[in-house]
Design goal:
By secondary structure, this protein is of the alpha+beta class. It has a domain of 119 residues: Gcn5-related N-acetyltransferase (GNAT) (Aminopeptidase, 3-Layer(aba) Sandwich). The protein is 29% helix and 29% strand. An eight-stranded mixed beta sheet has the order 1-2-3-4-5-6-8-7. The model has no long low-confidence stretch (mean pLDDT 89).
Length: 204
């Protein structure tokens, strides 16, 4: 990256950090008839996120603990969105999104639903929420990487409007597997964006 580009990215972060309204959210939501609490993660959530990550990625190398702490310490450009089941307070799933204002792209760094909660629409909800936030703050694109073997996730992303942009060969260090770069453009009239979802704080 050349110096000018680095400076422009830095200036964009400093002049336009992720708005407070996007970072400070709390909602009670219903997905397929079940109630969940949607809220940002704190450092106290990380141990449980790692536990859920290990269960969900059985066989694949999960993220190192430092990556969670590192991203959580960047609230100006990273958003940790948790779904907890209110009766047991157990962590049902989460998504971590990184905002790149220079190119108006929201990158989904991690999306995980606990095995017991999979196939109940939570992955779809979390992705739709990120797409809605991106759309509402006028970002143009949502992107992610996925293992080529993760066909369940790839078909979910396609169903939500993501397309394969390119294949990165031998992207994953654990087994040398290829990754798909997937992305979708959020136009003004994007019909995949659920207009009923929005960032808000029901406690304030
Ligand atoms: C990928 C992942 C996040 C999806 O979350 P999820 O909550 O299971 O997703 P959803 O329930 O919204 O939808 C998943 C699929 O199950 C299907 N499904 C949803 N409800 C269902 C039901 N009641 N019965 C059967 N199938 C159902 C959906 O149609 C979808 O199928 P598709 O493959 O045709 O798109 C989750 O499986 C996960 O955490 N996997 C392990 C980690 C991982 O691979 N993360 C992604 C890395 S890029």
């Amino acid at each position: 990256m050349d110096l000018w580009k680095k400076f422009r990215n830095w200036f964009t972060w400093v002049s336009r950090p992720l708005p407070e309204i996007v970072r400070d959210f709390y909602q009670e939501i219903t997905v397929r008839g079940r109630k969940f609490v949607l809220r940002p993660a704190t450092r106290d959530d990380i141990a449980e996120m790692i536990l859920v990550e290990r269960l969900a990625y059985a066989g694949d190398e999960p993220w190192a603990e430092e990556i969670f702490y590192d991203l959580l310490s960047q609230p100006h450009n990273s958003l940790f969105i948790l779904l907890r089941e209110p009766e047991t307070n157990s962590l049902a799933g989460y998504v971590i999104a990184s905002f790149r204002p220079g190119i108006k792209d929201v990158h989904i760094s991690n999306i995980t639903v606990a095995p017991d909660w999979q196939k109940r629409g939570l992955g779809t909800f979390l992705l739709s929420y990120v797409m809605t936030v991106a759309h509402q703050i006028k970002f143009r694109r949502v992107s992610l990487e996925v293992r080529v073997s993760n066909q369940g996730a790839v078909s979910l992303y396609k169903r939500l409007g993501f397309e394969i942009v390119r294949t990165r060969t031998q992207y994953y260090e654990d087994n040398g597997e290829d990754a798909y770069d997937m992305a979708q453009m959020l136009g003004d009239s994007n019909e995949d964006v659920n207009s009923e979802l929005s960032f808000k704080n029901d406690r304030s």
